[in-house]
Amino acid sequence: VADTQYGLYVWPCAVVLAQFLWAHRDALPGKRVLEVGAGAGLPGVLAARCGAEVILSDGEELPRCLRHCRRSCRLNGLPHLPVLGLTWGRLAPPLLTLPPLDIILGSDVFFDPKDFEDILTTVYYLLEKNPHAEFWTTYQVRSADWSIEALLCKWKLRATHVPLHSFKADKEHLAGSSLPGRHTIEMMIISLATREGT
């Protein structure tokens, strides 16, 4: 039975997002990256190993997940990688004092519909502060009734679908898992609907 602190596992969405990062590894050196809802931190750790300046974050109310994320950094030779407690939808000092960002990562953060608006509120805030940044996110399709389309419009955000085959992530061994549930994975890049200078 999976622990209720879901961030203790590497879920299929993290593997697919890591594959996207690996496919774009030449563009990562020097990029400033924040992973939200990092859990075990696979995408952020990979981005750091590829030369990005990475900050990992998960909910400040999830100390076990934060400890697990720090342990993952140490095990991957990145003991000084910052891991912050950052709760979606809350304007707290860790969010307000973040340095400039180029990329925001989030794997399987659209897990529970009650969190969708808090996630997009946080993403919107970060994109407003960093208008040329993008939110790269993978999600598992769990219900046809769950959608963020109305929230994207509300927060003036635009989503671009990224086909998994375009970065060779449409293979069963990448998105497969022994964990429960369907494993249909999708990827999208979210940005401000109107960016300055575009």
Automatic annotation (TrEMBL):
Keywords assigned by UniProt, alphabetized: Membrane, Methyltransferase, S-adenosyl-L-methionine, Transferase, Transmembrane, Transmembrane helix
One example of a Gene Ontology biological process annotation: methylation
GO molecular function: methyltransferase activity
Cross-referenced InterPro entries: Methyltransf_16 (IPR019410), SAM-dependent_MTases_sf (IPR029063)
Top-rank lineage group of the source organism: Eukaryota
Transmembrane parts of this sequence: 6-23
Presence of keyword Lipid metabolism: no
Family: Belongs to the methyltransferase superfamily. METTL23 family.
Name the UniProt record assigns to this protein: MET23 protein
Native organism: Geococcyx californianus (Greater roadrunner)
